[in-house]
Amino acid sequence: MAISCEQHDYFEIVCMRQSRVRVALADGTQRVGQALDINTRRGSEYLLLAIGSGQEPVAVPLNDIQRLWAEGNAAAHNFFIDLTQAAACTKL
Q1: Domains in the chain and their CATH numbers?
Q2: pTM
Q3: Residue 77's closest CA among 5, 33, 12, 20?
Q4: CA-CA 20 to 30 A from 62: which of 33, 51, 54, 81?
């Protein structure tokens, strides 16, 4: 599923803030970690998540992410976005 430019902005924000996030993937799995960066490899974009200390970051394809939660951060920086819906961002 391709994401819009507006939705892409939310990924950039969590990376800039190094926010703690949870993502729900198209296959039903979830990943939790600290958002580090967005990388491009072979024409696809990936969200890099620090899952645990001392471990290599996990690369999660942006196109596989259906929902994004920024949670456990400063209250003003927490939100939820459903990427399957147009402009569906909710403050937590």
Answers
A1: 5-91 (2.30.30.720)
A2: 0.88
A3: 20
A4: 54
